[in-house]
């Protein structure tokens, strides 16, 4: 999001000094988050929360959650703040959201979970955090793929090891009838083949 323009920033600073601006709007303006609506009357902070999760802005996340913004709110694609934080490797933001009650198994509208995103991107610290908070290791998205399948297909072998050590089911098949082992064979991922054999 673009930074606030100088004139609006100055106006916000004056209103804050005069006690006419909520702390939330002040924090948002100080963090450079553009406000698309009248900043004094904003009601829907879902997109702001999702943006804060994307960039890992803990102050804004805390403030929004303290004001009752839904930690599991979704954008137009079904992404939750947790999905976005995890996909963008924002470990502290993801942990804050989980501590605040984020659904660790929430999927986007395609059924992709945060753990699947961490597996796809090769983010073992994020994957370990999600597993610690009870992520379903065997959840399947719309085409039947699992986090283990993503990690195997994209050569994210550190995540493959973590998932296997945590008890991921190696026998699950996707809609094409393929297992994680089959995908490792197709991709020529020798390390994963050895781990899955």
From TrEMBL:
Keywords: ANK repeat, Repeat. PROSITE patterns: ANK_REP_REGION (PS50297), ANK_REPEAT (PS50088). The keyword Isomerase does not apply. ANK repeats lie at residues 44-76, 77-109, 110-142, 143-175. The keyword Calcium does not apply. PANTHER family: ANKYRIN REPEAT DOMAIN-CONTAINING PROTEIN 39, ANKYRIN REPEAT DOMAIN-CONTAINING PROTEIN 39-RELATED. This is Ankyrin repeat domain-containing protein. It comes from Dyadobacter sp. 676.
């Amino acid at each position: 999001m673009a930074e606030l323009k100088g004139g609006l920033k100055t106006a916000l600073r004056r209103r804050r000094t005069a006690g006419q601006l909520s702390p939330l709007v002040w924090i948002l303006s100080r963090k450079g988050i553009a406000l698309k609506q009248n900043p004094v009357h904003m009601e829907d902070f879902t997109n702001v929360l999702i943006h804060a999760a994307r960039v890992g802005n803990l102050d804004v996340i805390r403030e929004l959650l303290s004001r009752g913004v839904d930690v599991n709110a979704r954008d137009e694609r079904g992404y939750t703040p947790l999905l976005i934080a995890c996909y963008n490797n924002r470990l502290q933001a993801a942990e804050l959201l989980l501590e605040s009650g984020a659904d660790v198994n929430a999927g986007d509208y395609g059924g992709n979970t945060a753990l699947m995103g961490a597996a796809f991107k090769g983010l073992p610290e994020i994957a370990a955090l999600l597993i610690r908070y009870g992520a379903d290791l065997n959840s399947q998205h719309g085409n039947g793929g699992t986090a283990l399948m993503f990690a195997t297909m994209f050569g994210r072998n550190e995540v493959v090891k973590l998932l296997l050590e945590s008890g991921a089911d190696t026998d699950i098949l996707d809609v094409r009838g393929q297992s994680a082992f089959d995908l490792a064979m197709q991709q020529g991922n020798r390390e994963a083949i050895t781990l899955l054999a």
